[in-house]
User: Fold these one by one.
Assistant:
Number 1:
Amino acid sequence: MAQTEKKGGLLRKSSASKKPLKEKVVLMYDEIFMTEDPSKCNPRFWEELFLMKVNLEYLEGKLEALDGEELMKIKDNINCLFQHCIQALGEEHPIRVVNALQTLCALIRGVHQKNKSTSGFDIINMLVGFDKAELCMKNLMESLDSLLCAEGSESLKSLCLKLLLCLVTVTDNISQNTILEYVMINSIFEAILQILSSPLSRREHGYDAVVLLALLVNYRKYESVNPYIVKLSIVDDEATLNGMGLVIAQALSEYNRQYKDKEEEHQSGFFSALTNMVGSMFIADADEKISVQTNEAILLALYEAVHLNRNFITVLAQSHPEMGLMTTPTSPIPATPVTPLGTTPPSSDVISSAELPLDADVQTSNLLITFLKYSSIVMQDTKDEHRLHSGKLCLIILTCIAEDQYANAFLHDDNMNFRVNLHRMPMRHRKKAADKNLPCRPLVCAVLDLMVEFIVTHMMKEFPMDLYVRCIQIVHKLLCYQKKCRVRLHYTWRELWSALINLLKFLMSNETVLLAKHNIFTLALMVVNLFNMFITYGDTFLPTPSSYDELYYEIIRMHQNFDNLYSMVLRLSTNAGQWKEPASKVTHALVNIRAIINHFNPKIESYAAVNHISQLSEDQVLEVVRSNYDTLTLKLQDGLDQYERYSEQHKEAAFFKELVRSISINVRKNLAFNTLSQELLLKEFSTIS
């Protein structure tokens, strides 16, 4: 007996002796694409259609193959199909509901493809007709809301979320997607929250729910009142907020785990052995191969939660017992599409051991630690555009955290000590830190470590000026809190001072190249004012008097860099060029640093001459410093502990518009609606005969 093959909606005998036979569902689609009403000849046409397995590929392809004029001729049938899909969502038979959901996805995507052409017809009119749009979309949103909130099939909920993601992402720029007006009017916000607050639903659908919410929040956010923004900003239910935090933590943990696995695989390979043989000549090049695709969608969700909802700040510090204690669910899980690393929701086995123990003692982790680890990975390489966007968004999130009073309270809490193992970029001149030697410290130390790490590792020709400015601003905001609340943080401040001085040195060494692209004086002024902050207020927040002495020691030891900076800004501020004003601001800001250098250097030289010492030790210099504070005169500088608060709409609107566009394209590309096989569905819906 000849075997039957199936391809592109056709059934044919392998002998090829007869004409190919079309699947019944394909024949029914063909009837819809005629100008006649398909139910005229067969009154049960629509009823039968939704019992047939959907052929997504054929339906989408058929829609895309027609030009605008041809599509307009069958507009009534398209409207009819759309309306019958919505009706089918209310059916008791789950198979009809599944087929209706998949058909809607194909319709929306297929019709939208035509909207990109010159025909320019309106997508809403083509799908539902202007006269029925409001009622149809209301019914659609109510049906989706009911399915998401019901205690029924998890597969149906999964398809509902995929349909909604399809609806949101059909256009690259979601603010131009007019269908979303109906999603704004008929809100599904509460349904999303219900998914996030329920452990089972969250485990199965949390990722899609969080990404959907992040995208909806960004619909015309600067042009009109977006109800999702308003509602997200006032959520105060602990279970819901913790649920959202857990989903984000799991996705970021999965990224961290994948990166760690790749790093270990890379280090154990032949190339690693080769680099060990020849020294570390190629270590930077080798590391560039360790690449895991970043996850901007989940990062955007974290940003919106932190930025819009002050109650979410508490979630950052909440430990996540579920991440270590969850067991694999016994209910069937819908298959997820195969997408690049870092873009898919974590699978259940990942969730059960999502956060890797930091050492043998297995300490508790939280969302902030997971986020800091994620940031330390994506901020290593800013040459790639996606990583640059991710790095910038990480710094924006940290900016919001550094401005928040409650966040600062737990960041600086001495009773909340953690061992945070940040990823450090391999560099020839430093050894890799041993993970187990990390001390337990307040979380703010990890934030400062991350900032120092960024400062040290990104002094390069393609200088990321914007990221450096944000980095210095974060440090400044943390210092302002410490000064205001007199928090004496036991931190290795010398590492920060050294990094800042080396940054100034880099700016001076590359003055010509950098000035062609950037106003380096803005950054130089911020760095100098950080030193002014330490000089003026350091006695209120540095941990010990000797820390203040060490600050002076570092300034004196590295005085040549400050002298060179002064010479450079003096030269440019006395010329009538474009840099006159910004350079002169740096000149004025250096007044106290220069006073310290000019006051102590002669005293140190005198001490060396009297004691016949050619080179003084650190202790001897510190002795001179301590005994000569009394005669030092400094000027009081205003506004050192003031800063401009973060504002998205005025400064970051263009960045977020481009970021959301990129996320929309990526989500659309990775959506898969046919991941549920008919066999799996029949097994799940075993009540259907």
Number 2:
Amino acid sequence: MKTFCGRANPTTGALDWVEESEEYDYHQEIARSSYADMLHDKDRNEKYFLGIRAAVRRVKSRGQQAVVLDIGTGTGLLSMMAVSAGADYCYAVEVFKPMANVAVRIVEKNGFKDKIKIINKHSTEVTVGPDGDMQSRANILVTELFDTELIGEGALPSYEHAHKNLVQTGCEAVPHRATVYAQLVESERLWSWARLLPLRVGGREVVPNPEETSCAGAPTVCDIQLSQVPPTHFHPLSQVLPMYRVDFSRPVSSSPERLTASFPALGSGSAQVVLSWWDMDMDPEGTINCSMAPSWTLPDPENFPWRDHWMQCVYFLPVEMPVTEGEMVRLTLCHDDYSLWYNFQSDNDSEPPISRPLCTCQAHMVWTRPRFGELNDPKRTDRYVEALKSIVRPDSVCLNVSDGSLLPIFAHILGAHKVYTLENSRMSKKVMERVLAANDLTGTIQVLESHPQQLTSSSLGDEQVSVLIGEPYFTTSLLPWHSLYFWYSRTALAGQLRDDVTILPQSASLCMALMEFKDLWRIRAPCGSCEGFDVSVMDEMIQSSLDFSESREAEPHPLWEYPCRALSEPREVMTFDFRQRVPEEALKSEGSVTLSRKGWCHGVALWMDYHLTDDISVSTGLTQPPSQQGDCEWSPHRKQAVYFFSSPWESAGDSASSVTYSLTFQPATGDIVMEFIPGPSRHATSA
């Protein structure tokens, strides 16, 4: 049986539906999962083991047999912990069949097959009774059903069903309870991710669509590594507040709920953003606590337990509201069965309805949060405006090829004769038309819902384009080089371009650096043994999936969230000249990069630099050269690509060791095939 999967196509700028084998989805699920990260999360694993031991002791002290229900068992780790702690029997439920099969093998390999039964079902389908999946109800409930938002993986409905149908009244639960915390803040940086903000170009202010400024925004949570947002980047307006607590040892409700905290404002400012995280107590007394708090809340920030499967949340309030220090205000948390959201009011305002925020302006459906941040970045805007000033003339006919871009507005303000812009969907066309209307530019810039291949001379008023511009940015791009769709567009538009056309950016460079990651390496590293249990079967499964099809390629990561060091100097390894058409033959680049700093090389970071003019460039990767120690600052607006090595390579930092690379750009597909191997240094070549 075949399956159809969406895959970005850099040659067309579209999401192609490609027929793959029936194993494709399974391998992608495993290769890109957080299983390895969870197994490497020592703090989580130790706390669960302590909580399970304590729960088994409490049941045994009452003279009862310890019967455990483990929902979402994954590898079977928590079930093995339970049996090792003295549980008499364990029912381990796992709905994902490949994982259930692996759990069977791991349980058998560790000698627990007689005391652990793997049930390949959703927990709501599990039956109890002589002929059921479980012989009797359990008196210990162990689960790991949580995501960064706590309840986003359906924890509440699963607990609700389990208490009604699968466990005894008064059962022990591990974890015993969870608490969601929130802090109200003002943050220029974070607020720039929420909506388009006014900016000045050529002495004129460009403003957002008024509908957007009053829109509640995207309904999905923004999950990030909040430890990488330093306290200097926000102004607290409240203390850290406990907002929502759920006791998993008692019946749980998934019904919508509103919870409110009243408090005097900690400072004056604009209430814009809620920072949120949760912790869980593994025992009733709260002596075994596992916290997702960001590092800057802890006494020893350098030694906080890093994890990527549970991060922290940023919630953007529907509108920003002024707050005065000491003013009594209210923060309201609402939840349904799968999500949380926040509202803010002064103490005299009425309570808001329990309804999820929804985007009504459509801008939040076109622009992602990093994209909002990119459009609002004044330094980045200044570089584009500076470059446009050098090429736009009073007789310029400009065509923009980038999704949801403000460059056409900049070109018009700078005096271009005519400006056209291509949008890839009706929704993005409508969003851009609303921005133009808000700035009294309706009719001065033509927004065309068209792909470059479909554009005709009549679409451009029978005039040829003298200036082709792009950031470039495309919503379908996943990896940095997917934005080479701009190059393919330029090639498709060749018949609409003047012979002396000016193209911005004029070229792009693929750049790379050899990296040591402080923690990110864990998501791809084999575990072997976890809390004394052999989980090597899981390692083999992950490696098999990583070796399958496109899983062998680089993968996108926002490296600003992951501390890392460059063990080599950045290197341009391939150049793409947009002034020429896409070649028919492959482009190849080979060479070696010297490891000039001491450390463990976990992989390669790759990104694109765009050369707008001869002397103005913008980078989607490093915002400045690495420090002497190799510390890096990355653009927060785009994801970089990371090619992980199968095992780390040690660098002595004496420039004696190097990594050899071989890169091939395939024009027919827009893909870049890459290979990195350790070896003697040699000079870079390209063809």
Number 3:
Amino acid sequence: VQRDLDVAVTEFTELKQQLERDTLVLSILKKLQEFDTAIKEYNTALLEKKYVAAAQQLEKARRSLKTLESRKGFELKILKALGTELTVQTQNILYHLGEEWQKLVVWRLPPSKASSSLESVLASELHLCTVPSEEGLAGPPVASVLQAFAVLGELHSKLKTFGQLLLKHILKPLISYSSLRPLVEEQSDVVILRFKSEEPNLDNTSPVEVFEKMKQILEFLHKYLLNVPLECVDDKKECKVILSELLGDIIWEELSDCLIQNCLVNSIPTNSSKLEQYVEVIKSTEEFETALKNMQFLKGDTTNLLKYARNVNSHFANKKCQDVIVAARKLMTSEIHNTVKISPDSSVALPRLPDPRAGDHLKMEKTSKLLHNEMVILENESKLSQHTFSLPACRISSSVEELMDLAYQTLLEATASTDQCCIQLFYSVRNIFQLFYDVVPTYHKENLQKLPQLAAIHHNNCMYIAHHLLTLGHQFRYRLTSILCDGTATFVDMVPGFRRLGMECFLAQMRVQKGEILERLSSARNFSNMDDEENYCAANKAIRQVLHQLKRLGKVWQDVLPVNVYCKAMGTLLNTALTEIVTRITALEDISAEDADRLYSLCRTMVEEGPQVFTPLPEEDKNKKYQEEVPVYVQKWMTFKELMIILQANLQEIVDQWADGKGPLAAEFSPVEVKSLIRALFQNTERRAAALAKIK
């Protein structure tokens, strides 16, 4: 019995294994049959142009093949052939679907070379077929093709290609060209979208108009192409596909960036008084997004487009600041030599600010008045001159006057702006002056070094700016935002820098001119041996060259520098020449009578023509006053005149001029210098020895 039981168990095990093998083979054969049936039905449906059914059968065949490939231990050679067949048939249906798509959605485009011009945009058309679907699906005729693409998983790539064409040939040109208007033409079997051109608007396209036209295009697409309920199978679950949402995900980011950069950016106001009108643009943006959400192009979240429009105050401030800096830099790089005359009596265009107690409702006023007209009259009898704190008359670059006007107008704009905008505009004005400090000396460096007149104008420009910076912050302090009213609204800290900038440039030019004077005098052969005609001619030529240089400088600085600066500058340069001549002559060891006469003649030329270089004003008769005041500006003037007296005097006259160290000669020369001159001028006699003994 035990033996029979073992045999029965063995037979049962074998039969069970056989049954499992047969069941597996049967299931594989069943799947192969399903694959075969699906391919046959696919071919039939494809011939009948029932693309959705064909795609579904192809997907059924794909699932059957996937099941067969997942069976381990049954690596059938036929599976590779089936996989190849499936790939071939997939490409076949995609080809047919592509052909149908091109018939249903037709782009009529100009040659690619001319794709960016207005003419090419006007030649672009989009044709959508309106013949009903043979498969009887709801929606436009393209529905069956789109559903088939969805079943095959190719819908996204197809819509991506369509979206790129839509952006390039329809949506972006609509934003770029304000004259374009969309035109929809309905025919019996097709609807056509094209553009017509109207009279272009010279101003930038209004966002309201752009949104309206954009909405018209998307409504057209929604009605004739995208309003199709589609289904697809994803991980064995059926899911709804919303075409509008899918296309929106593809194109919205690029479209919204284009709308911002080419439409909203240009619509940002340049004046704070126009900010209130921008509410219309924000409202239009909201309506545009709402319409897109209703058509399911957008999801529920607020997009970057609306955020940008609502953040108009920040964008206005950024744009205004950028425009101000660009305008300022343009003025700084313009020519310095175009000048205007300013004087204490000239009208300085300052904005008239409202009374600080007048409330927060500010109105911009273009009225400008003289600063001194606003001054409070002191009751005390001793009154200051109305010009006490005025800038002296001089010439400045017209560009600098415009720059200062730009600063005042920007600060006036800040008084009527929001707190954040006010702060940005205030610091933009500070940046203007910092930019001037950095840009002008570098950009005009070569001209400022070579041309004395430009150096003088730049000096005036810097002093003019510094003069205004002293009170600029104070004038606006109580009109700006409360954040800036604690003392931060000031420009006084920049004043020393600008004064130093102007002085350093002018002093550098003065050093250049001093160097040229000394170089010319170096050719005078130390003023020695004047009885030699050649030496005398060389010295005379040097004197003439120096005088010519000073006269030329006097002309180029005339009516440019303030009178006091002009006189100090010319006096310093003339003093340089006189000091050098005095030093050279007092260093001579031997001066003959003829030498003395010729040296006197050269000195007399300097004394007679030197004052004539002082011509600060164009009116000749007004310059006499300054020519008579030469000793005030030329430190060595009296020293030079005393030297001339010594050259023509006898020993007794020199002793009298010394007057025991109390005379005019003693005020200008030291005993050593006088003794040296006496030894050079007179022979060694008892009278000379007696005279020398008195010089102490």
Number 4:
Amino acid sequence: MGRAVTVATCALNQWALDFEGNLQRIFRSIDIAKSKGARYRLGPELEICGYGCSDHYYESDTLLHSFQVLEKLLESPATQDIICDVGMPILHRNVRYNCRVIFLNKKILLIRPKISLANGGNYRELRWFTPWSKARHLEEYFLPRIIQEVTGQETVPFGDAVLATKDTCLGAEICEELWAPNSPHIEMGLDGVEIFTNSSGSHHVLRKAHARVDLVNSATAKNGGIYILANQKGCDGDRLYYDGCAMISMNGETVAQGSQFSLDDVEVLVATLDLEDVRSYRAEISSRNLAASKVNPYPRVKVNFALSCPDDVAVPTCMPIQWRHHSPEEEISLGPACWLWDYLRRSKQAGFLLPLSGGIDSSATACIVYSMCHQVCLAVRNGNADVLADARRIVNDETYIPEDPREFCKRVFTTCYMASENSSQDTCNRAKLLAEQIGSYHINLNIDAAVKAVVGIFSVVTGRTPRFSVYGGSSRENLALQNVQARIRMVLAYLFAQLTLWARGMPGGLLVLGSANVDESLRGYLTKYDCSSADINPIGGISKTDLKNFIQYCIENFQLTALRSIMSAPPTAELEPLVDGQVAQTDETDMGMTYAELSVYGKLRKIAKAGPYSMFCKLISMWKEICTPREVASKVKHFFRMYSVNRHKMTTLTPSYHAENYSPDDNRFDLRPFLYNTSWSWQFRCIDKQVNAL
């Protein structure tokens, strides 16, 4: 009869414009799928060119090279006897579309353009593509000559349709369409589609994975069916980390789960499922069947091929499983670590350099690099030849095998404590002990000579010598002297990144890591062009609260006991003079707000879309037990003054791993002016009026 269908989905670590590498990873996924008996293979969104091409989508080269890759796929024996579903951009009647190209045995069955484009947050698909707005409509697409020569087809169907095989019916969704209120799978399911596919380019955000899983399972819980999701994974060239989680679901339950974080470039999930389970599930949902009798039918592209075998009674089928979610601390340990590994190997550098201050932020960054080293050793132990080859190239040793994370860390990670006369011995000791425990190559240096030289130049030119406020100087002098120290640290960080390996007789250079957290960036509590200025920043999208929890996780899971004293110490910049040998400056006093408050402000400003007045209105209720309305008003005004005064710093923010939906990243996620009227006179007057009324 033919009822057990075997389907495959995958998570691929594609790289924008890496057509050669992308093609090889697609071939590998098809080979694995076929070897496991799959008759249908689904890949991630825009997998041929890589999702993150951005304005390269405008270029005809991107379209040309995508078709050249498609040609290689079509003519290869590897793609025979399996329906292949790949993603690429296509120009149809001079309009660019984000498409799925579905083919079988050198024939293109259907080109399905994306209907709902992702255009919020980090996504800008409407900038490059046009959504297909002709529901249940097919047109002829005239193939390029290089494809015609392989397929023997002049035109193929282009539009919103479904595939009817000998044994079932398949319908495609593309990423955002699953998240849309009127997802195509609803109407497709009512029209008899039994297998839904979704090719995604969905990136990691802390605590987001469950939402994606819930959406997939709910897609078939009410309507029945099989749902297959493929996703991009890894860093494909920018701030985002695509977190895999390929999955297969049936009738509202997960039957196959892919990893969220791993160093495997190709991961394939295969499941065998019984179509009769879908049909019997749907049979008793009377409301669904009544709606189905009135549905507007989809065009069906007939396919002379079956996903099942005629004699499959004894074929075992997959059973539901319980999805295992990572804790936020595990996500921080794994996501940025995988992102760093992709960046390191693809940038062809020899490692990282981190200014390690002995505080929570730089220590958390060091722990993420240490976690990366753990992941590399684990992948090599599990037989990942790609990771082993990359590790050998990075350390410049063709016989090297990374087995011990601490030993590998010493080869690829340099930490540097940059002391000044304002640094305490406590932070120096904390940094040194942590470096010893993770195994990094650690440098201690003193910046006082450089600071005195720079301030000396100013004094020679102006005849004036600035002083710290504790010595009678003004606030302007005090801030300038702090900034000089911070900026000299940035200059030295890059000098040592370029030449440390040279001085040690080793080839290559190091990438400089920044360690400003998302809350400090939002408030602007950082010096422009200081050590927050780096090549990349793995914690720039993570809150201080989450970082503290992550440090506790590292104490327990990596046995890094040095972190205990770092956790208990108050955060400080150590840029002002010590008092009796002890630190007198603390971050929260300097900022005039706590990190916990900053996290609340950040979420209200970005996620809740709250301006000053709306934020005040929300907080008088949220904080009614701890603050009077007048105190709330004062806090809100102070935050918006500081945020707007410092917004210009976001234009030069180091590219950071995107992990929070309230990130102030000015590149494309949080688009705001950087020259504000910082008095907010109208807005603050509205707040004052409400305070007086209360």
